[in-house]
Design brief:
Blueprint (H helix, E strand, L loop, with lengths): L3 E12 L3 E12 L4 E4 L6 H8 L7 E6 L2 E2 L4 H10 E4 L12 H11 L4 H14 L15 H13 L5 E5 L7 H16 L3 E5 L3 H7 L2 E6 L2 E6 L1 H5 L2 H6 L6 H11 L11 H10 L2
Parallel strand pairs: 3-8, 3-9, 6-7, 7-8
Antiparallel strand pairs: 1-2, 1-4, 4-5, 9-10
Helix pairs in contact: 3-4, 3-5, 4-5
Length: 277
């Protein structure tokens, strides 16, 4: 078994018209880690994600899943898309069916599961997202937040090993964003690999185990949150700022009030300060 669940090796990709979106991307996602991708708009994050389960095919380079190179035939793509589910930033780009049940049942039905198993998967996915009561609701009547949850249920109904989220907290208010992050932690606790892109450096710092930084279709840096956000040159190149907690911790260290640890949230910071008394 490989230590890396997903590997990207020298991948190039161009959209029609010669628009290059990926320019020699190489990276390895460590198995079991919570992974965040950071970078400005146009960095190539969304395009890269669509390569993870074969929606897009590289012009050059290789994508490997669990040590096996992706093969672009019907049977292999069907299996890899069962294992690797992608939740798009805009739920309207993902949802297409008339009702919530029809929407969430589409994937399991394409696995040729018995109708009883399909319904169980739909009910389980909707319950996990706290929206089972919406099962018979027309999709077009849902709020943005409800559509977001349905789009996640879409993927969960396939029982994937990896769930990839493109800007999952975009356009959500703080309460709903917090609930979504708790859901991400729940998926990880179940043993699923969780990967996301975000512009929120505070979220990336507090949540991720491994971070990749992208710009202009390349990976320009990466590592642990501490390594990434203490690299001033990398942050400057990527037009990223330090998370608020890192700035506060830096100031406290300069004042001699904090040791070399890197607290991930306010509770951790207060505990470090108490221990330093």
């Amino acid at each position: 078994m490989s230590n890396y669940l997903l590997e990207v090796q020298e991948v190039y990709f161009e959209y029609p018209g010669g628009i290059r979106a990926l320019n020699g991307v190489s990276l390895a996602v460590e198995r079991g880690k919570k992974v965040a991708f950071l970078g400005p708009n146009g960095a190539g994050k969304s395009t890269l994600f669509l390569h993870f389960n074969g929606i897009l095919r590289p012009k050059k380079g290789r994508i490997l899943y669990d040590g096996q190179e992706l093969v672009y035939n019907r049977s292999f793509l069907r299996e890899i898309r069962r294992k690797v589910g992608i939740v798009f930033q805009d739920p309207d780009a993902q949802l297409f069916a008339g009702t919530v049940f029809q929407e969430v049942s589409f994937g399991p039905m394409n696995l040729n599961l018995p109708s009883k198993d399909v319904r169980e998967r739909v009910e389980s996915a909707l319950s996990a997202m706290g929206i089972r009561e919406l099962m018979d609701r027309p999709v077009h009547l849902l709020s943005y937040g409800q559509k977001k949850r349905v789009s996640i249920a879409d993927v969960l109904a396939m029982d994937p090993e990896v769930v990839v989220f493109d800007e999952p907290t975009a356009y959500l208010d703080p309460r709903h964003a917090g609930e979504l992050v708790e859901m991400l932690d729940g998926l990880h606790a179940e043993g699923r690999q969780v990967i996301l892109s975000t512009h929120d450096v505070d979220l990336a710092y507090s949540w991720a185990d491994q971070i990749f930084v992208m710009k202009d279709g390349r990976v320009i840096g990466g590592g642990s949150p501490e390594e990434v956000f203490m690299d001033d040159e990398l942050l400057k190149r990527a037009d990223l700022k330090k998370p608020l907690l890192v700035e506060v911790s830096d100031a406290l260290r300069q004042m001699g009030l904090l040791d070399g640890r890197f607290p991930k949230n306010a509770r951790d910071l207060l505990e470090c300060l108490r221990e330093g008394r």
